[in-house]
Amino acid sequence: MNQAAQILEPVREIRPPTxxxxxxxxxxxxxxxxxxxxxxxxxxxxxxxxxxxxxxxAQQVSIFAxxxxxxxxxxxxxxxxxxxxxxxxxxxxxxxxxxxDDALYRVRGVQGVRWAVPLFKGQPVARALNGRxxxxxxxxxDDSSLAGAPRKMVLGSIESLRDPDAxxxxxxxxxxxxxxxxxxxxxxxxMNDRRARIAGISDASAPFTSFPVMxxxxxxxxxxxxxxxxxxxxILAKSQPGVPAAELTKRIRAATGLRAITNDEFGWMTISYxxxxxxxxxxxxxxxxxxxxxxxxxxxxxFYIFTIExxxxxxxxxxxxxxxxxxxxxxxxxxxxxGSIGYSIGMGMTAIFFAITTxxxxxxxxxxxxxxxAGTGGVVLFIVAVASxxxxxxxxxxxxxxxxxx
Length: 406
What we know:
Number of domains: 2
Radius of gyration: 33 Å
Helix content: 40-55%
């Protein structure tokens, strides 16, 4: 017995080799990737579907956000005051019902108002001596303080507005009225049969329309448009230190009966008007929805067909003991890999698109926002989740015996 025990002792010490979890996971991941790239046509089709969907969504959402910002461009550029005071019926910045002159003095008399100045907004037709003309957005600033003047100047200075017949025009408007001519000061325009001399060129935010944006003194602006009984479009007000803007708006409303709102509130009020009374949100929303549907349906169908064609491979993995959890992990890896590549290509295409268009004056200021990229990433994650869900459900019901069928 002792001799037999000595002979069998080495046999008892033999153990099967231990499988390292990391090595097993790596092997399964490698198999999943090879299965995915085995059919190049379907693999590239999945990537294209997600890339096209992410490009369409990111591009349309970015353009939509850029247009929303353009709707309030003049409000964003005028930063001197805290509040805008206007007629109670005013709905947005481009709809102006002029105030009586005594409204300015009533606002100045409200406790907590540091200063208040008039602001004129009109739309005259500007004609250059070369014959070119276009309707322009004209802002008339307080003669003494020039509150509301542009802060980004390309040529000239704000103080040049104090010169006779002086106006400041934005760079895009200058290029339209004087095509092919390098920016320079001293060119002459005509508005309402009155002479206007370009004393400065600004880098104003792009407006919702493609009209030139001009700034001049209040006393000149009313003549460039044509005098009416009432002229004052808005009142810009500044609160005293320590007086909250929200509290001051209530005081002005109570004392004058006029609507007083902050810059940010006025901007969103303008955006809300365009959202409710134009077809912009419907058009862009429809395009984004189409991109989402196309990406989900095409990617889901292609990924499901790919899974069906690989059922025998999944069945073989089940037959050798691969758990459902590991197979689900393989499918999710395939979906995330395709989604990541497609998303990266789509964002690259979108970045190239905006790198080209943002250099053009007509589409300046419309850029790819990081919020758009993050939101599109979430949409792509949803697409690959839906695409993989159908495949996971089919594989989990798979019997290992399928591998032995003809």
